Amino acid sequence: MSLNAGQMELREEAVRAESPAALALLSGFEHAPRVGVAREMAGVERSPGVGAARRFRSTTPGLVTRQVARAGAVHLVERVEAVGGDGLPSPVQATVLSVLRRSAAIALALGAEFAARTGLDALKRANLEGTLGADKRVAFGELLQAEALAVLHVFGNAVAFLLAPHASEVTVEVGGVEEVLTDNAPLALQGVLWELDQDIGALASDEAQLVGVVAAFAEALMEKIAARAVTAPRLETFTGASWQVEADGFAINGFSPARKAKGSTITMQFKKPHEVVGNHIAKYQAMRLAKMLMAYDFEHKLNPFAELGGFIFTFIGDGKPGTGKTTLIQMMAGMIHEYCGVAGYLFRYQNLSVDNIDSYQGKSGQNARAFINAVLDPAVIGFGTIDDIDQIAGKRGDRQSSAGALEITSVLMDAFAGANTVVRGNCTFGMFSNYPENVDDALRQRAGARFLVDGPQTREDYIDILALLLGK
After folding, report:
1. pTM (predicted TM-score)
2. Which domains does the chain have, with CATH numbers?
3. Which of 122, 132, 260, 407 supports an S-S bond with 164, CB 3.0-4.6 Å?
């Protein structure tokens, strides 16, 4: 994989040099939590005095075996290998440990790079020698905090990226990450690894949940660190540069999460264009938009139609019930899926439905944001649909709109035409409704085009419908 313009390489030698330190963190360290609270560990009850050590122990003379964990000690290797209670490490457990070690090594290597570029390494030496002047103590503390934040985000980013190919459909709620310490980078890693150890012990009862816990923890960690970094000083060196880890294809771009591109498994009955009867305007616009998406340049992350004009980033399809909105979605998704199959591109289809509205405050907005981010992924061709948007997105001022529906409206408005909206031309969003007048006015105005779904109109249209219904 070649480096993009302005991207620097985080050398493999630097990453491998930090591997022993990363392995030492996983093997064991002492940590007294400051903010986080220890969880109640899940598992079978044991009699008093019976330890939780591994079932098998080496009896080879002279070979040092693992010691029983003491109070306050963190042994992630033993914690991961104990999931499932088999006694021997499985391939999944080995993969999780390998990802954690690799991610910690990448994070420490990035921290060393940050320290060298900002002069923090010189300040560290002066502090150890006792020659750090009083005029530099404030800058020293701020740089230590910035290094810790950068290291923590890169760690979570790398874990989420490297673990993505091994993730299953199992999802685990781990809550927020609390033990975020920014005194220095090593202590910061110890804090989050302590909390990860707690989450694994409390929530992971099998290997699928183990992967789910680690992946969810990485996502929560990135979210926490990105929020902390908004007001943190001296992060310009980290946010203003971009690094690439060639061996993993992992890109570090400030506090933006890296995603390993993968298409979605689509279970949909695709329709061919000849099966869409009537809706001539909407049918032509959908076919034209599907072909426009194929002009996306994955190297430059830009579609020439988005640059020249005419690209439809958002559209709304409205019409009476039974006029063919769902059939239009099936046709457009089928065309894009077929085009991507021929071109060798990854295609991702996502649908936002009433199932994404949650009773917990803020959860509906998070579901909508996850939907938006999945479709916006610049490494795939994306198509996002919101069927019956009048039932999903609330109308401001309407007392019957729930808080969750209003959260979704706010997220969609910001994503479709917000201050941070960037249209690359790799995806499009379609909103469909039988009653568009019930959609919030500001959200409806953000649709770049209207697809009139009016159904069959002429005698020939009804003859076509009859032919499709009769079949052979």
Report:
1. 0.61
2. 8-253 (no CATH), 273-470 (3.40.50.300)
3. 260
